[in-house]
Amino acid sequence: MKKLVGILLVSLFIAGCGSAKAAKIPLPTGTPPPIPHQVTAGMACSFCHAAGTNRAPATEHINLPNCLSCHKPLR
Q: Are residues 71 and 32 in contact, defined by beta-carbon separation less than 8 angstroms?
């Protein structure tokens, strides 16, 4: 049962990354871009953003521990 739940959560996460649309709002210089998709507890940003999986923009600072300390969801 735990394996099934894990597979379901990973599948939903991958689907969420693939459907994310880039934010098209002007930002002041130096402002971190907002997160244009839903963020849930336990999400590993590096899953999509380390290599640009599922059309997610790849980041050069994936080694930082907490994406949400700078980036904020739009919703």
A: yes
Evaluate whether 34 touches 73 at the Cβ level (below 8 Å). yes
pLDDT tens, 11-64?
A: 555 544 444 444 456 767 788 888 888 888 888 888 889 888 888 888 888 888
Decide if pLDDT at 10 tops 60: no
Written as six digits, the tokens of 69 are: 């300390």
C-alpha dist (Å) from residue 11 to 29, 43, 72? 35, 12, 23
Cα–Cα separations (whole angstroms), residue 31 to 22, 34, 44, 49, 70 = 15, 9, 22, 18, 9
Q: Nearest-CA neighbor of 24 among 13, 15, 34?
A: 34
Residue 22's contacts (CB-CB under 8 Å, 6 or more residues apart) are 36, 57
